[in-house]
Specification:
Elements (H helix, E strand, L loop, with lengths): L2 H24 L2 H4 L4 H6 L2 H18 L8 H22 L21 H14 L1 H6 L3 H14 L10 H15 L4 H13 L1 E3 L2 E2 L10 H16 L8 H19 L22 H8 L9 H16 L49 H4 L6 H6 L10 H8 L4
Antiparallel strand pairs: 1-2
Organism: Candidatus Gallacutalibacter pullicola
Protein name: DUF2264 domain-containing protein
């Protein structure tokens, strides 16, 4: 594999992330993030932009710089480590001009957006505890824990939102040794009940065809059940989440067309490349199924990045992301989508946390599943997860 592919990923990540991170580090995000008057009044867009962007960058920030062979990437990583720590500190510092809304009124049992993005912020710390926690000054650590406490006064909706409070609690547990195991256990057990088959969960009781299994559910189920394993009583949650994640990764990879496009399905489609969060997450933790070699996943995800980044109108005149899937398509955005929301697209970049020597990066270019099948190659048939487990004598 040419080093140019990893360089292309780094350049794409930098182009997307820099306007958010540089302004948040300098305390100017509130002045520059393009929000309309209603979005500014609501105030949650800033934490959305920061929480989502840093979560996508976190594994790359945590990667030992000695493993990075390209000198330009190494220098950029050093710059970003400092900027991201400052951005995260400012977001939690009540005296900062970029202090974010964590709980606007400190209302108990309120359901509001900060639950979501505090969880993405917490997930970044889970992925990069050395760079995004240990290297922070004590004041920043204190502010972050206070911010989490304010968020946890609120309650999540009975849907994928359960994973957000569970993620924050898992992060608090990792950082302090104290976490609400009931919140975590409840989130995991409800998703265990909401499993619909063949690697997919309902978003609550009902199944809806969208990318929320990838945006949120599958990566967070795996992460929380792993990080908080000591305070979660039932190992079945971990087993289920891994089996489902691996099958869902197959489904996601099979959906990537040779030109990098993918099916236009469901709400929040303006998260763009974030539709492949679960696939990138599995690659990062070396949990891809045997049917998907890491270098094949790299080839598939690179096609998605190339296609998405080629769209005119993806960025505004100041370099911030617009609302859309392929360029600027504002009619695709639900009422809850603002400029900060769409930075979930950075989640595709999680495999940058893998060493350039890892098979994901070092393996040769190969065809994606779509390309193999539609070029006439005789591939192994695709069967459901439950059928496989039945054939092997295992039950899910």
């Amino acid at each position: 594999m040419s080093e140019n592919v990893r360089k292309k990923w780094v350049q794409a990540m930098h182009k997307i992330a820099y306007p958010v991170i540089s302004n948040a580090a300098n305390g100017t995000l509130h002045d520059t993030l393009p929000l309309n008057p209603k979005e500014k009044e609501r105030g949650v867009g800033y934490l959305e932009a920061i929480g989502r962007t840093v979560n996508g960058l976190a594994p790359w920030l945590e990667l030992d710089e000695k493993e990075i062979t390209d000198s330009e990437e190494r220098e950029l990583q050093r710059e970003y480590r400092d900027l991201v720590r400052k951005a995260m500190a400012n977001a939690a510092d009540p005296d900062s001009t970029d202090y974010c809304v964590w709980n606007k009124s400190d209302t108990y049992l309120l359901q509001d957006q900060p639950i979501v993005d505090a969880a993405f912020y917490a997930s970044a710390i889970l992925k990069a505890p050395r760079e995004l926690w240990q290297m922070q000054p004590q004041k920043a650590k204190d502010d972050i824990l206070k911010a989490f406490s304010r968020v946890l006064l609120m309650r999540p909706s009975r849907c994928n939102w359960l994973m957000f409070t569970a993620t924050i609690e898992a992060c608090r547990y990792m950082l302090t040794g104290i976490g609400d195991s009931m919140r975590i256990d409840y989130a995991l057990s409800m998703h265990y009940d909401w499993y619909k088959g063949d690697g997919m969960y309902g978003d609550g009781d009902k199944f809806v065809m969208n990318y929320y299994n990838s945006y949120v559910i599958q990566p967070m189920l795996e992460e929380v059940s792993r990080v908080a394993a000591e305070i979660v009583a039932d190992e079945k949650f971990r087993q289920r989440s891994m089996e489902a994640l691996q099958r869902y990764c197959e489904i996601l990879e099979h959906m990537i067309a040779p030109d990098g496009s993918f099916p236009f399905l469901g709400r929040s489609i303006t998260y763009r490349m974030g539709a492949f969060h679960a696939l990138s997450h599995a690659a990062l933790i070396d949990a891809l199924p045997q049917s998907l070699p890491a270098n094949q996943v790299r080839c598939a995800l690179t096609k998605v990045i190339d296609k998405t980044m080629s769209a005119p109108g993806m960025f505004d005149e100041n370099g911030f992301l617009t609302k859309g899937l392929y360029g600027k398509q504002e009619q695709l955005a639900e009422r809850y989508i603002n400029c900060g929301s769409v930075y979930l697209t950075t989640f595709i970049f999680l495999p940058l946390g893998l060493s350039p020597e890892h098979l994901f990066w070092s393996g040769e270019d190969v065809k994606t599943t779509w390309e193999k099948v539609w070029s006439g190659e005789d591939v192994v048939r695709d069967i459901s997860l439950e059928s496989r487990l039945k054939e092997s004598g295992k039950l899910i």
